[in-house]
Amino acid sequence: MEPSNQAITVEATVKAPVKKVWEFWTKPEHITKWCQASDDWHAPYAENDVRVGGKFKTTMAAKDGSMSFDFEGVYINVEEDKLIEYLIADGRKVSISFAAEGNETNVTETFDPEDTNPHEMQKGGWQAILDNFRKYTEQ
């Protein structure tokens, strides 16, 4: 059994320059296009104020209307095109780094796990969302 405080990391290399990756990651009109872990979910609403002290909220919902929740929090560190750190509403910390390598950008997300679901399930869900982001940004 993993320790409950062990941070989880997911990553992807996006075939796009860091400026585009940053824009697609942070603009609400893009967030609603990629922020879901599976095809039967979607993100019908997003707001994002990307600055220290700024807040974000993304509504994640099952397409059949059976359930939804708001993923929200506040930014604690923002370095444009490089780093985003925030606290989720439940107090867990998330750190996302953007490393430019020519026309590709490595996106690495590290997050504190929650106590309800197994770490592998959490990692799989966050990786699926990151993979959707990569596919959306590369098209």
From TrEMBL:
<comment type="similarity">
    <text>Belongs to the AHA1 family.</text>
</comment>
<dbReference type="InterPro" id="IPR013538">
    <property type="entry name" value="ASHA1/2-like_C"/>
</dbReference>
<feature type="domain" description="Activator of Hsp90 ATPase homologue 1/2-like C-terminal">
    <location>
        <begin position="15"/>
        <end position="137"/>
    </location>
</feature>
<dbReference type="Pfam" id="PF08327">
    <property type="entry name" value="AHSA1"/>
</dbReference>
<protein>
    <submittedName>
        <fullName>Uncharacterized conserved protein YndB, AHSA1/START domain</fullName>
    </submittedName>
</protein>
<dbReference type="InterPro" id="IPR023393">
    <property type="entry name" value="START-like_dom_sf"/>
</dbReference>
